[in-house]
Specification:
alpha/beta, 10 strands, three-stranded antiparallel sheet, binds adenosine monophosphate, five-stranded parallel sheet, 276 residues, Rossmann fold
Length: 276
């Protein structure tokens, strides 16, 4: 974090080569260590010219997951979503989930936030993913001030710098419309929208050919609960990161590619920090 004592690295001006280098070394990370935990190993990832370390903020449905995937392709950093870890645990056919994970999944189905202790335990045991030489794009974490404080401390201890916290902004009415039309592929996790970004065959994934589903927490009753949780717990993070000097507000209107291009352009204007 820029203002933190442990992350006392110097700022260097932005260089286009960092972006070009990241693109050239970009690989499709399989995220095994993130999704399955420390017992799994990822395919080796190419060393990025600059390991981008970003946090994506924004209300549920604003398109953080889509942007994380597009940014992953452009910057080469791994897309780390805490929601994906919970969903992977829910659909896991391996040994049964722990009691804490069973309770977490119940919170998730209702659209409520999983308790900080459970989320933090899950992230902490995946610290290697934060240290990864490919960098990271955190999506859906942190979501409370407690989680943000814990992450800040961990990054200071690990001497990892944070490049930016991208905050995607969109009016509430549009967010609700996006959420209710969102459909996801069970297999590859590709995200579609029934009108904005439909699959070629209605209800079927273009990549895998398997049926698309509506996430339980995208149903109207859960959406209301999620919006309340966002306003109460996550919106205060905007001020937290603004004070640290790393907040990058981005208007989340237009196509996913437009938004991604806007994000990259804003990152290009941001001073890039040399890694501690
Ligand atoms: P997402 O896919 O990020 O919208 O997450 C789906 C659900 O997983 C959320 O509605 C929460 O129930 C749970 N979840 C994911 N990440 C977190 C987090 N950082 N803190 C608390 N709950 C989380």
């Amino acid at each position: 974090m820029r203002n933190s004592p442990a992350a006392s690295s110097t700022f260097v001006p932005y260089a286009e080569s960092l972006f070009a280098g990241a693109r050239m070394t970009s690989t499709k990370s399989n995220r095994a260590a993130w999704l399955e935990g420390p017992s799994a190993t990822c395919l080796p990832s190419a060393e990025a010219a600059h390991p981008w370390r970003l946090i994506l903020l924004g209300a549920p449905g604003v398109g953080k997951g889509t942007q994380a995937d597009l940014l992953r392709q452009r910057l080469g950093a791994c897309h780390l979503s805490t929601g994906d870890v919970f969903r992977a645990a829910a659909s896991s056919t391996g040994c049964g989930p722990s009691p804490a994970m069973i309770a977490a999944l119940d919170f998730m189905r209702r659209g409520a936030l999983v308790p900080d202790a459970t989320v933090w335990e899950m992230v902490r045991e995946r610290t290697a993913c934060l240290r990864c030489r490919g960098g990271f794009i955190l999506d859906g974490f942190p979501r409370t001030l407690g989680q943000a404080e814990s992450l800040k401390k961990l990054m200071e201890d690990e001497r990892l710098s944070l490049d930016a916290v991208v905050n995607y902004e969109l009016p509430l009415s549009e967010i609700v419309e996006r959420l209710s039309g969102r459909r996801t592929c069970e297999k590859c996790k590709a995200v579609y929208h029934v009108t904005r970004q439909p699959s070629q065959t209605a209800g079927v994934c273009d990549r895998c050919g398997v049926p698309l589903f509506q996430r339980e927490d995208d149903r109207p009753e859960s959406v209301t609960v999620r919006m309340e949780a966002y306003q109460r717990s996550t919106a205060p993070l905007i001020e937290f990161y603004r004070k640290l000097g790393v907040l990058l507000p981005i208007e989340a209107t237009g196509s996913p590619n437009d938004i991604c291009t806007r994000t990259i352009a804003a990152l290009q204007q941001t001073p890039v920090r040399a890694v501690s």
